[in-house]
Amino acid sequence: MSSIQENQEKQTDEQAHQAYEQEARDYVDKIAPGIYNYEYENGRRYHSNDQGSYWLPNDEPEIHRLNQQHHCFTLLKGGKLHLAPLPSTPLRILDIGTGTGIWCVQMAELYPTSEIIGIDISPIKSDNKPSNVTFQVEDAEKPWSFPDDHFDFVHMSLMHGSVADWLALVQKIKRHLKLSGVLEMQEMATAEVHSDDDTVKPEQAYARWCVYMKEAAAKRGRPVNIGPYLISYLNGAHFTNMNESVYKLYLKPYPEDEFGKMIGAYTLVNVLSGIEGFTTRLFTSVLGWKLEEVTRFLDECKKDLTDSTVHSYIKLHVAYGTKEGLTTIIEQQESRSDKLD
């Protein structure tokens, strides 16, 4: 084969990947105007205080990416902001790692008589927030400014890579919940990629990215592959009425059904927009890679992600549990008494 033919085939292959990515972006723009509407910047802004706590950018592109991701996950869960059953009475609600604050704002519309507080290690900017929403800068791993037995519902989403001791954090949340209060957590199996037709192979760049991410997280002492362990944390903290739902998060728009295609398009655009921010800081500062090595590897990952023949997905886990209420405690005491008799 001549060099001219090789160059032509290479260009054709690259054009196919670029066209696939553009198709996903166009699809997202079509179904959700305005959600993906920002320009890229050369530099990235990161949280400036404790680097060990938050590892992702917090600049405008990341804010838009997080809002788009929230929209995608809400669609995946059938339009629900929470899966745990909640009473209709006024509630005191806490959102840990609130990010852009979009979940709090939407919850305020659903529960207008409730008090909703969002905390994050970075300052939260949200224009025109409802009067029943408050944002404050607070580190979830450090002592809280809230009293014990204070909240009816605590929501925590996508804190992977930001927490050193998950069980300790879940136990702390339980202390701050009222009796019969509910904790709901949402996390991905970030370091696992799957396919149902064996098109995902361990030698592929994105599959290797998952392995490297897991390695970097382990070295930092802040794991990223949290989703599969949510139930075990709830169980370890002795929550009751536990429940878990697991969703397929398609990484590209390959499903034949319109809903699956929509989720895949959202996710592909989201990952392609964020993978540089996910990766660069960890790979350079923790794994010791050179920036040029990271850039070349990410190009390989993007090529994998836009390969329409690889039908990959990751899993989103949502789990909730209840802090035992007074009725439960009485029942347990009566049960123990019966056994003694």
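Second entry:
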Amino acid sequence: MSDAARLKSTVYVGGLENAVSEKLLADAFLPFGEIVDVTLPKPDLPSSKDPHRGFGYIEFELEGDAKEAIDNMDQSEFFGRVIRVAAAKPQKDSNEGLGSKTAVWETEGWIAKHGGVSAEERLGTQQAQHATTPEDAMTGLDIDVAGPHL
């Protein structure tokens, strides 16, 4: 199965209670179709006592089963919490978005997308403007006794 097809048949389940296990989650979603995989991501910190991060992914055999699960389970109660069930989104690259190790303006394509003029071009433009500015700011003004003419 291609990655695009796998993504279409995978649902995100958020708002999970800590007591929920992969088996319990699979059992709750089994009525909607054949389940290929259930994943509950572990906490980032090794010192965390939580068994998972409060969300998970369920991959179904068929895309239609995933849609059926979303339609029936979104905003339902599971272990005392209202859960959110939606189509899974592709995982972002570790160099994108919050938490990345790279500044947003250094990412490929950001400057082109945001009308970026490089810092060197901007500095050159500013220096050129200063070079054409007269030394005395009052030079060229037509000042009368009553003040400047508008």
